[in-house]
């Protein structure tokens, strides 16, 4: 996979969940607390920085994993993943590791950005929209395929094959995989739905019909204009009535499916740090949680960038 120095954006929740399930829970701190997600994420960052030598690096966070504006539009959004109240269902041994991850990132000086009322995806979308140069997005979430843009370039490094064998997703890949224009993934996902996020989609419209509609009209917006104008040409057999019945859903779903491009990002330095921002705090964290090995590996990589 070719290097594309520029801005590297981490979908941090996606990565620490992957680390949690990929690294044995028997990896513990001296006091017995599991730190498998912490250690796994640190090693992931080291691998990514070594392989891609970014100039800038941002660990994007979920300040709100189920934003009110998305729930207001579609109440079922991620509803099946709610534990109690508004809290996300997170494994008992992962939840205590998240604050440790945040402290480690801060001590290292790696930009850690979450925006109240927005998900990590929205932070990623906004950084991508503002970037002047190349952007690479590391995630296990296909929703972010909507951001690929060969002209800038912006590509997704998809973790489906593992962090050491990332799948580079560009417009050509999206077209080849889904049969849609390269930048149309959000429109396609809106039509077909996504049960993992509680998005119903249009009943009776599956992958093939969704792809045919988006390819024919070019965008969801253009398809809806044709639908509202009473056009019949270009709609696969039986699909037009299904779309008419789902018109209320289609009016609000794009605001849920499309990542924000205008989240109010804080002003923070995003350059890859050559040395820790707070060495004393980092030493204390390494001692308390038994992180000497992975932190030393990461620090060595950071000095080389």
SSE topology:
Elements (H helix, E strand, L loop, with lengths): L6 E5 H11 L13 H17 L3 E5 L7 H6 L23 H12 L2 E3 L6 H11 L4 E5 L14 E5 L8 E3 L1 H8 L6 H8 L14 H11 L2 H9 L10 H7 L1 H11 L21 H11 L2 H13 L1
Parallel strand pairs: 1-2, 1-4, 2-3, 4-5
Antiparallel strand pairs: 5-6
Helix pairs in contact: 1-2, 2-4, 2-13, 4-12, 7-8, 7-11
Explain what you see.
It is a single chain. By secondary structure, the chain is α/β, with parallel strands linked by helices. It has two domains: 7-173 and 260-304, 3-Layer(aba) Sandwich (Rossmann fold); 185-257, DNA polymerase, domain 1, CATH 1.10.150. 44% of the residues lie in helices and 9% in strands. It has 13 helices and six strands. β5 (154-158) and β6 (167-169) form a beta hairpin. α1 crosses α2, α7 (185-192) crosses α8 (207-217) and α7 crosses α11.
Give the ordered list of helices and strands.
EHHEHHEHEEEHHHHHHHH
Ends apart, CA distance between termini? 18 Å
Widest beta sheet: strand line-up: 3-2-1-4-5-6
Unreliable stretches: none
**What percentage of amino acids are in beta strands?**
5-15%
Number of strands: 6
What is the helix content?
40-55%
CATH architecture of the largest domain: 3-Layer(aba) Sandwich
Instruction: Characterize the biggest β-sheet.
Output: 6 strands, mixed
**Overall pLDDT, averaged?**
94
* CATH class placement of the largest domain: Alpha Beta
What's the number of helices?
13
CATH fold label of the largest domain: Rossmann fold
Count up the domains. Answer: 2
Q: Outline, from the CA principal axes?
A: elongated
Radius of gyration, CA atoms, in whole angstroms: 21 Å
Main structural class: alpha/beta
CATH superfamily of the largest domain: 5'-nuclease
Function: 5'-3' exonuclease acting preferentially on double-stranded DNA.
Domain 5'-3' exonuclease: 4-273
Protein name: 5'-3' exonuclease
Keywords: DNA-binding, Exonuclease, Hydrolase, Nuclease
